[in-house]
Design brief:
alpha+beta; Beta-galactosidase, Chain A, domain 5; eight-stranded antiparallel sheet; 30% helix; 24% strand; disordered C terminus
Length: 682
């Protein structure tokens, strides 16, 4: 089933993916069903009338947590046998609540057999992704008018409990209603599907009745707290609203911080805590929802590495990559309890802590997380110098189930030489050095300002300056004027031209004398498609416009590239990147996907969808927010917010009102004055 035919609703750790009828009929490898805490609690949920499935008239996307399906019987033509119609309204909350309504449009009564088929394979999300079989035992029982589907493997137990407001005949395969609908009348019932956990992971479920109203009020409050956008562009207004709503949808609550939320990475595979994704999204959203950054810092700090554990790629001070709650993690068939196999989240943790304080003035949190920040800074030098040359590098210690590429471009072929060949391990990718440099500079600021440790601050600043000097010498590809994507294990340049150069500008590690050449590459025809900066440049050995990290355009990537361009004063280039991504957003109805094709804009006239992109995805959702910041030139400076607009001409007038921060609330204004040429051939 293609993603275009799927309907997704979610709330926190729970989500439902169905077809356009509201039905779920999952194969072992489909990410359709009711999922909670990485387990599929329903793999079949099919509605029939007199043994026949229904046809969809339309689907209403009411809220991210609620949807409504309008259905009719028949064999494909809605004008045949359309004397009946069916409405399914579904709200997700620790399972889901479904209201089923059958309308009789005839002047005669109708008798029907209404059937809801139900089944669960209780698949771990990793089992779905990797096509693996279950090792435990299934059970079912019928008790007190409820159907209970269950699965047990030693102490790991999960159950799906299905109940209905009206009497039904219940068997192990579902619920059957004998229904008589009067002329021009209706029949209605409500069905609850609850997820229940035992022994390991998860938590108690709550009935979903009334949850929709509560969540709607919560969403309204979330939107009201965010800065208000006023602009000439209807498309930008819609994209901004979509971003705020999707960010609300992707909020994830940990069991140790009740009532607080941080961003989950994305639907369907990544509805959990990811260190890198949560940090980047929190950075993007800081001017809009700073509370996400606070929770991200607390939650990641709680789970910071404390020991050397090869199975989990854990070290003292290291920030986690991914946290999972399913069966395979419980039995240590996967290392995600949590897994620490990424190298960027640890320096980025310090970057986020400093940026959060710069915006909010919350020195109390910075003091409270001093130990965690110092441990992260220590990890950079003590555990990440795998090549012995003073650069951050990675090589997995868990060779069986650990991640091979531990930078954000984590696909197998993302790091390559110009000719397309791949380097060995350890690999020291360029953006990691930028993040380490930025972490040391920002850590020095916090040490001097908040922790009152000037000696530590001096040491960090000296280390940062030395790293910057060596980096600009060792990574610079002299004949082309850009930075290599990595150094290999022998210290040779892995010399493909990639978007990573933009992250270097954002980090501040680039010498000013080299910045102009880097900026020119980023908006030049090899990297810039017209819609955005490609992950890899045209002409490189592995370039592919629909290759995951070797030619596609990632909105998240581009938002940080634009921020980096603004940092070095390239206002026009940043406006060009921002305009391209926001133009693309209009074609995706305001919801930017994880990635889209890197074809030249003049070739396709519209951005080409990447076939398996996650949507919504947190850092793609955050991209328009960061682009608004870069276009308006918003930078905290002491107790004040600097506003220095640099907008493309097509943006028109732009106002962002009630921006929260240490200054209280301020307004920012700008008007598009930069003429952006779409023809990227020139």
């Amino acid at each position: 089933m293609s993603d275009g035919q799927l309907v997704q609703i979610l709330e926190g750790n729970t989500f439902v993916v169905s077809d356009r009828n509201g039905d779920i009929d999952a194969s072992p490898v489909d990410a359709t069903g009711l999922f909670s805490f990485d387990t599929r609690f329903l793999s079949k949920w099919v509605l029939t009338l007199d043994g026949e499935r229904l046809n969809a008239l339309s689907t209403d996307d009411l809220q991210y947590f609620e949807t409504r399906f309008f259905l009719v019987p028949g064999t494909g033509t809605v004008y045949i046998d359309a004397n009946l119609s069916v409405i399914r309204q579904r709200v997700v909350a620790d399972g889901f609540h479904e209201e089923l309504t059958i309308l009789n449009h005839d002047d005669k009564p109708v008798s029907l057999e209404v059937r809801l088929e139900a089944a669960s394979d209780f698949a771990d999300l990793f089992e779905v992704k990797d096509k693996l079989k279950k090792k435990g035992a299934y059970h079912h029982r019928i008790e007190r008018g409820r159907l209970v589907l269950g699965y047990t493997r030693e102490s790991f137990a999960r159950e799906t409990v299905i109940s209905t407001a009206l009497p039904a005949k219940i068997d192990e395969g579902g619920l059957t209603f004998k229904v008589k609908v009067p002329p021009h009348g209706l029949w209605k019932t409500m069905v609850d599907v609850r997820t229940e956990f035992a022994a390991w992971g998860g938590g108690p479920s709550q009935p979903a009745i009334g949850a929709g109203t509560k969540m709607a009020r919560g969403l309204d409050k979330w939107l009201q707290r965010a800065p208000r956008l006023e602009c000439d562009s209807d498309s930008l207004r819609a994209t901004y609203h979509r971003s705020l709503v999707d960010l609300a949808a992707l909020r994830f609550s940990t069991r140790t911080l009740p009532g607080r939320s941080l961003p989950a990475a994305g639907l369907p595979w990544f509805m959990t805590m990811f260190g890198r994704d949560s940090i980047f999204t929190s950075l993007q959203a800081l001017p809009f929802t700073p509370e996400l950054a606070q929770t991200t810092l607390l939650a990641l700090g709680e789970r910071q590495g404390t020991r050397v554990d090869d199975f989990r790629d854990e070290d003292p001070g290291r920030i986690l990559h991914e946290m999972r709650y399913g069966e395979m993690t419980a039995f240590e068939e996967r290392p995600h309890s949590p897994y620490y196999g990424c190298v960027d989240a640890t320096p980025l943790y310090v970057v986020l802590l400093d940026e959060y304080e710069r915006w909010t003035g919350d020195t109390k949190l910075v003091r409270g997380l001093e130990y965690e920040a110092r441990a992260a800074l220590n990890w950079i030098d003590e555990y990440a110098n795998l090549q012995g040359n003073g650069y951050v590098a990675y090589k997995r210690r868990n060779e069986k189930t650990g991640l091979e590429n531990q930078c954000w471009k984590d696909s197998w072929d993302s790091i390559s030489y110009r000719d397309g060949s791949l380097p060995g391990f350890p690999r020291a990718t360029c953006e990691l050095q930028g993040y380490a440099y930025d972490a040391k500079v920002r850590g020095a600021r916090l040490a001097r300002l908040v922790w009152k440790d000037p000696e530590f601050a001096d040491r960090l600043e000296k280390e940062a300056a030395d790293l910057k000097r060596r980096f600009n010498r060792d990574f610079w590809v002299e004949d082309e004027g850009y930075f290599a994507i990595a150094l290999d294990v022998d210290g040779r340049q892995v010399d493909a031209l990639t978007s990573n150069n933009g992250h270097l500008l954002w980090s501040g590690i680039v010498d000013k004398s080299k910045a102009k050449s880097v900026a020119a590459h980023l908006v030049g025809k090899r990297l810039f498609s017209g819609w955005g900066v490609r992950t890899m440049a045209e002409g490189e050995g592995r370039y592919n416009p629909i290759g995951y990290h070797v030619g596609t355009v990632w909105p998240y990537d581009n938002s940080f590239i634009a921020w980096g361009l603004r940092r070095y004063g390239f206002k026009e280039e940043a406006a060009r990147v921002a305009a391209g991504i926001l133009d693309a957003a209009e074609f995706f109805d305001g919801r930017l996907p994880e990635a889209f094709g890197g074809y030249p804009r003049e070739m396709t006239k519209y951005p080409v969808q990447y076939p398996t992109a996650c949507s919504p995805q947190a850092w793609s959702t955050g991209a328009p927010l960061l682009l608004l910041r870069t276009m308006l030139g918003l930078e905290p400076y002491g107790e004040h917010l600097i506003v220095d607009p640099g907008l493309a001409l097509g943006i028109g007038h732009l106002e962002l009102l009630d921006i929260p921060g240490r200054w209280g609330h301020v307004d920012a204004f700008g008007r598009g004055r930069i003429d952006i040429k779409v023809d990227v051939k020139k």
